[in-house]
């Protein structure tokens, strides 16, 4: 039965293998380097000081690199769409697979929504007269129709590009990432030629609390390397190389954030940064003594929005597709476009959410960052646990890329990944120096309440292993047949045979 299920499942229309090595790397790097470096860098510097913030990003990047190593081995061993969904299903079973998948989807969707709000915020910097027709005010943030429609237009365009095919999205991603790096190089050049070390003083602020205040944004800023595993089934490259690109993308993003922090702080002092809404752009203008250069950097910020938005929409849709193909979500999300072979229904659903996001105003930016981060780290922690379980239970599983060598180095990496992620989760809790506010926790809770409804539909007793997905589909098929048996024509006919006829009863009365 399981073999037949597997055969039928594999015979379904599949995703196209069209992504090359540069596409995959651009997807991972572009996902991590979004708009946060433009809008949040000033806050990082005033929170921890330029050196403190740079160290926080350096440490955060090292932690994410360790997590990335566990992903690298797992994606090389299981290069299928859905990433975490596949690893947890094989290592821990169906319900844990759902929990980890739901967690990372929640993180992805918060970032997609973040970018939909960040786009009109950045365009407003270029066109100060953009805001017309006031709609309402949310948490002190005024929402204007024309402002919100910029985010809506971006959401529609990015969704349409992704429906057209991942190759189209990958080509767009590559060119926009190149443009983004050109802008970053210009900022660094300005720092070397016009920056002043006196602007960077004091180098540290708020001690340990400041350091951890920056550390809490690390999961949000680095999420995206895991989009490469989500799209692994569409990569036309060797599985071993897919794994390597996961780690390389993390290292590139770490260098980017550290460089941006140091360059921005060299252009403007802490007091000036504290009063700036888009500190990196203002620093670029100060370094070159040109308002035009500030707007050039905003163009780079818009490029970052598009790369992150594109990648995370891509990743979230593939994960929802994988979950729906396994029966964890409604089958509607597993629909593939007949021409482009993309999960168009999942793309439309997430794109629809991003269309709504701008109407909640820019106050949502901070809430989205904080609400998505705990879910992201939960997923990373579970992947680390799955990595350790598979190393112990399936030592002979084919691993084209084996991290840590032939000895116990890999297990050490897995333990460090779990410990680091547990430490990051603790930073968000009430009473900690970097605890998040109640609004993000409310959004976090709402997402998990919704997920609980789907989780309870996942059958119990699905054993982890290579054929866990087949067993899950089989159990769901049996449940569906039983349900149809209880409500089908035969059952209805049987109930009619024994039920009293209302009309005859009335006649007799």
Task: Explain the overall architecture.
The radius of gyration is 25 Å and the shape is globular. The longest helix is centred in the middle third of the chain and has 35 residues, at 291-325. The N and C termini lie far apart (54 Å). The chain has helices spanning 2-10, 21-32, 36-39, 41-48, 50-77, 84-92, 94-126, 145-164, 166-194, 207-215, 218-222, 227-230, 239-267, 270-274, 279-288, 291-325, 344-356, 364-393, 409-427, 438-455, 468-487, 489-498, 502-508; strands at residues 134-138, 141-144. A hairpin with a 2-residue loop joins β1 (134-138) and β2. It has 23 helices and two strands. It is an all-alpha fold and 509 residues long. The protein is 72% helix and 2% strand. The chain has a two-stranded antiparallel sheet with strand order 1-2.
């Amino acid at each position: 039965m399981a073999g037949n299920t597997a055969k039928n499942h594999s015979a379904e229309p599949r995703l196209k293998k069209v992504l090359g090595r540069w596409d995959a790397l651009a997807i991972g790097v572009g996902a991590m380097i979004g708009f946060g470096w433009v809008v949040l860098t000033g806050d990082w510097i005033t929170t921890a000081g330029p050196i403190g913030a740079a160290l926080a990003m350096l440490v955060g990047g090292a932690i994410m690199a360790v997590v990335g190593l566990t992903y690298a081995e797992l994606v090389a061993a299981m290069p299928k769409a859905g990433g975490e969904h596949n690893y947890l299903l094989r290592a821990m079973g169906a319900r844990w697979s759902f929990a980890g998948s739901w967690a990372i989807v929640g993180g992805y969707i918060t970032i997609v929504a973040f970018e939909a709000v960040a786009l009109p915020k950045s365009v407003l910097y270029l066109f100060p007269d953009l805001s017309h027709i006031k709609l309402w005010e949310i948490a002190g943030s005024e929402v204007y129709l024309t402002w919100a429609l910029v985010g809506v237009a971006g959401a529609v365009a990015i969704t349409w590009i992704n429906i057209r095919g991942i190759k189209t999205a990958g080509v767009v991603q590559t060119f926009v990432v190149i443009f983004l790096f050109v802008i970053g190089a210009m900022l660094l050049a300005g720092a070397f030629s016009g920056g002043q070390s006196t602007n960077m003083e004091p180098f540290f602020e708020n001690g340990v609390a400041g350091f951890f205040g920056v550390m809490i944004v690390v999961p949000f800023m680095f999420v995206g390397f895991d989009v490469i595993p989500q799209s692994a089934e569409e990569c036309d490259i060797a599985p071993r190389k897919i794994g390597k690109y996961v780690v390389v993308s993390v290292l590139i993003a770490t260098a980017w954030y550290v460089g941006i922090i140091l360059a921005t702080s060299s252009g403007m002092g802490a007091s000036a940064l504290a009063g700036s809404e888009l500190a990196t752009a203002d620093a670029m203008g100060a370094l070159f003594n040109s308002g035009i250069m500030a707007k050039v950097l905003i163009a780079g910020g818009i490029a970052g929005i598009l790369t992150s938005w594109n990648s995370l929409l891509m990743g979230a849709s593939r994960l929802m597709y994988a979950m729906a193909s396994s029966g964890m979500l409604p089958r509607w999300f597993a629909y593939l476009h007949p021409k482009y072979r993309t999960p168009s229904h999942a793309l439309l659903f997430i794109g629809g959410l991003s269309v709504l996001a701008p109407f909640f105003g820019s106050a949502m930016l901070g809430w989205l960052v904080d609400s998505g981060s705990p879910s992201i780290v939960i997923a990373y922690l579970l992947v680390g646990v799955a990595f350790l379980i598979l190393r112990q239970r399936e030592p002979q599983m084919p691993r084209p890329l084996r991290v840590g060598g032939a000895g116990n180095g890999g297990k050490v990496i897995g333990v460090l990944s779990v410990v680091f992620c547990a430490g990051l989760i603790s930073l968000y809790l009430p009473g900690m120096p970097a605890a998040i506010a109640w609004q993000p926790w409310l959004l976090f809770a709402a997402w998990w309440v919704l997920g609980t409804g789907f989780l309870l539909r996942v059958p119990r007793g699905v054993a982890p292993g290579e054929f866990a997905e087949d067993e899950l589909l089989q159990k769901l098929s049996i449940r569906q047949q039983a349900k149809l048996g209880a409500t089908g024509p035969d059952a209805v006919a049987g109930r009619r045979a024994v039920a009293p006829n209302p009309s005859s009863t009335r006649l007799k009365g």
